[in-house]
Amino acid sequence: MSAVVSVDGGSSEAATTMQLPLGLRRETDEALQRAYRSYVDQLPAAAQRFEPARQRLSHYDAPRITQAVSLCFWGRSGSWLLQSYLDGHEHLLILPRNAGHQLYAFLLEFPALSVWDRLIAYPLYTEVREGPEGALFAGESPIAAAEYYAAVHALYSLYRDQADAWLNSRRRFIQFLHVAYGVATGRRPGTATPLIIYCQHWPKDEYAQRFVEDFPGGRFIHTIRDPISAVDSWYERQIELQTFILEHRPHLIADYLGPISSHYLDPSGQTIRSLLRADRAHSGLEAVTRAVRFEDLHLAPEAIMRRVADWLGIPYRPCLVDSTFNGAPYLHRSGNTSWIGANPSNAERRARNLSAADRWLLFALLHPNFMRWNYPSPKILGRRWVRLGVIAALLLLPMKMEFLNIKLIGRRQLLPAIRRARIMYVCGAPLYVLLRRLVMIVFISSQARLRSRPDFRPLQPL
Fold first, then answer.
1. Which of 397, 374, 361, 387 is nearest to 453 (CA)?
2. Of 446, 329, 460, nearest to 391 (Cα)?
3. pLDDT at 230
4. Handedness of CA 204, 207, 211, 213 (dihedral sign)
5. Which label site among 26, 67, 189, 299 has the fewest CB atoms less than 10 Å from its CB?
6. Which residue ranges make up each domain of the chain?
7. What is the model's pLDDT at position 127?
8. pLDDT at position 1, please?
């Protein structure tokens, strides 16, 4: 099915390029249906913007954009802040916030869509999946939907005669998506082949491997943070994420926490498991991976961004210390405070959810991280036997986060269950808590063995 609109002035070439060979109308997925309706509604406005979009597209050579870098986080380690510093550089193409996070999930979910269907569908798909953080046409830094659709039609006018196999590859979609976004912003690139910054954010080996298949020269930047602060902050974020899923998207809780943990909230366990599995480069990609410290982004933004620019191979520009998305200031909010860009007070070590014993356990367990990332830790832990002794002494002691976890389960799950007379569910909670304690002991023990090996290497900072 082709969506058609007549262009005022009416050349046959213009009329042809305002017809996309779309099959979205036949799709039943809610996000794809929303995308199709949005496109049809905006098509007349897109037709009026087509010629300027085609003119701006002439500054790009989309198929020759072969250099890309993936941006990932380690907990709440500032990947959005680094992303916002990179926004606006004329040698980079970068989608805002979480708008690029769903790229490979989308491609895996809809492998049969054509590149034109994908380009029309993706902006609404990521908005449905990610909410305002993934929106391209809404939120705090939107582009006009009509400008984006005009850019897609401009791409179609240039490449519609290419073979389907060439057009419908994963790499072509990623190239075209970023170029369409760049054209829609109206900013002129500094080169016909800008570097793509793919904001993966969540470290995931499967996506990383697909990324390097699509961009064989692909590289990775991970943002990192003082491990004490990272654990403390990520625990609070896990509470936000898990309670939101439980209340608003309960059908997704099993996918997020696993079949056992999905019955009861587990922010403490998920914090430790996810952070201790993601402080290394993706499998086999150590040589093309570097890390940027969260604290440097706040305390020495110009110095670290000069190093980032040098590693990316782009000229340094003053805009690399401006925190924006699509040119609009990125307003960071935390509690009752908000700020734009660097905030030195945010770089201080925090440990609200960690006891003194917890901190010593983390100092000992994550000693290689503290050393390689240049964060302060007790000097006595420089000796391996001391570290192993600390871990052995503290291993059986539940962490403060685990006690907080019990209170959270009681308040958010058990009290409602008691009111509904779900006796078996309430009685199962103590067994679950004991099971999670055992899992924590086994996991930390295995990590202690792994991290005591001389070949263990956390992420390498720039």
1. 387
2. 446
3. 98
4. positive
5. 26
6. 2-224+300-334, 227-280+347-451
7. 95
8. 40
* pLDDT at site 223: 98
What is the residue type of 182?
Answer: G
Q: Tell me, what's the pLDDT at 245? A: 81
Q: Which segments in the chain show pLDDT lower than 70?
A: 1-17, 249-262
What pLDDT does residue 197 have? 98
**Contact between residue 89 and residue 320 where contact means Cβ atoms under 8 Å apart:** yes
Q: CA nearest 240: which of 265, 264, 223? A: 265
> What is the pLDDT at residue 318?
97
CB under 8 Å to 21, separation ≥6 — which residues?
A: 2, 114, 116
CA dihedral angle for residue 19, residue 21, residue 25, residue 28, rounded to 10 degrees? -150
**C-beta neighbour count of 442 within 10 angstroms:** 11
Give the Cα separation of 17 and 150 in Å (integer): 10
- Which residues are CB-contacts of 17 (< 8 A; sequence separation ≥ 6)? 50, 153, 154, 156, 157, 160
- Residue 33: the pLDDT is 95
**3-state SS record for the chain:** CEEECCCCCCCHHHHHHCEEECCHHHCCCHHHHHHHHHHHHHHHHHHHCHHHHHHHHCCCCHHHCCCEEEEEECCCCCHHHHHHHHCCCCCEEECCCCCCCCHHHHHHHCCCCCHHHHHHHHHHHHHHHHHHHHCCCCCCCCCCHHHHHHHHHHHHHHHCCCCHHHHCCHHHHHHHHHHHHHHHHCCCCCCCCCEEEEEEECCCHHHHHHHHHHCCCCEEEEEECCHHHHHHHHHHHHHHHHHHHHHHCHHHHHHHHCCCHHHCCCHHHHHHHHHHHCCCCCCCCHHHEEEEEHHHHHHCHHHHHHHHHHHHCCCCCHHHHCCEECCEECEEEECCEEEECCCHHHHCCCCCCCCHHHHHHHHHHCHHHHHHHCCCCCHHHHCHHHHHHHHHHHCCCCCHHHHHHHHHHHHHHHHHHHHCCCHHHHHHHHHHHHHHHHHHHHHHHHHHHHHCCCCCCCCCEC
Q: What's the distance, Cα to Cα, between the start and end of the chain in Å?
A: 50
> Distance of CA 150 to CAs 24, 43, 53, 103, 121, Å?
18, 8, 6, 21, 14
Has this prediction a pTM greater than 0.90?
yes
Count of CA atoms in the C-beta half-sphere (13 A) of 2: 12
Give the torsion sign (CA, 121, 174, 109, 115).
Answer: positive
Distance CA 242, CA 257 (A): 9
